[in-house]
Specification:
The chain is α/β, with parallel strands linked by helices. It has nine helices and eight strands. Helices cover 33% and strands 20% of the residues.
Length: 285
């Protein structure tokens, strides 16, 4: 087993379209309304008159991106006093929404971040840091909510990771998985292109740092694979959505406009947008 590095510090708190969700198997308490999405969107971007061109364009096309859905869902699930385990959080819980991260960090009673990367040292929101892969994480504590944001595609041993999640949860606990779709064009390209070129392409499209690029294996990146590995571990699917992802051209205003127009055309024709992410909730039985 890998050595564990645990650090903690005092935590100081400062005061798409929901109707387009597909294949939803959610009971009443796990649903996202347009009001949920708008609340998260406005918290992130503030006054739309004074914000940048990208949020204004997104709003004009009535489009909420996958991050918006994930953030709104986690905001709904993390209730006051809950214990929250964030897997693979790195330096940020919500990279595009630090205000929401601060609110939820203050709302829950305990927020533990688990990540083997040194970027975890920079995280200002988690109450406790465990520098370790989730596969090796072992704790006597039980968490109400566990989140995996863009982590599933990097997990090489799904059943070992799920065994850790079983140890970290109790009946009724919920695990949120937000990840890329294995069969989306960008994921397909990532499987075909050697890893040494991944950062160059990501930097061109999204301006990410090299230390934020990690190898991918895509062993938990279809609904079938996710459902099977969670079922074997004793979880049941409570929510699933395939979310249109129109962020490939995010840095380029005209290309972003074309991309959103293309999505709108496909929707009007009853077709799915090819680039997508997956968002699911699994409940411990």
């Amino acid at each position: 087993m890998s050595p564990v590095s645990i650090t903690s510090k005092p935590h100081v708190c400062n005061a798409g379209n929901a109707a387009r969700l597909t294949d939803r198997l959610a009971p009443a308490e796990i649903t996202l309304t347009r009001a949920d999405l708008e609340r998260t969107f406005r918290l992130k971007h503030g006054n739309l008159v004074r914000t940048g061109w990208a949020p204004r364009m997104q709003w004009a096309f009535d489009y909420f991106n996958p991050d918006d859905y994930y953030e709104a869902l986690v905001a709904k699930l993390v209730q006051p006093g809950m214990r929250w385990l964030d897997v693979g959080c790195g330096r940020m819980i919500f990279p595009s929404n630090p205000r929401l991260a601060q609110i939820l960090a203050c709302r829950c009673s305990l927020l533990v971040g688990v990540d083997p990367s040194d970027t975890l040292d920079e995280n200002r929101y988690v109450h406790r840091k465990v520098k370790q892969p989730i596969e090796d994480f072992n704790t006597e504590e039980s968490f109400d909510v566990v989140t995996l944001r863009m982590v599933a595609e990097h997990i090489a041993e799904p059943h070992k990771a799920l065994a850790s999640l079983v140890r970290s949860t109790r009946p009724g606990s919920r695990v949120v998985v937000y990840t890329v779709n294995k069969w989306a064009p960008v994921s397909t390209a990532a499987r075909l292109i050697p890893f040494r070129f991944h950062h160059r392409l990501k930097s061109l499209m999204w301006k990410v740092e090299k230390r934020d690029t990690f190898p991918v294996v895509y062993r938990m990146n279809t609904r079938r694979c996710l459902s099977e590995v969670f079922r074997v571990a004793g979880f049941q699917e409570r929510y699933f959505a395939r979310l249109d992802d129109c962020r490939a051209s995010g840095r380029f205003r005209r290309l972003r406009y074309v991309e959103l127009c293309f999505r709108l055309l496909l929707r009007r024709c009853g077709l799915c947008y090819p680039e997508s992410c997956l968002l699911a909730v699994y409940e411990r039985r």
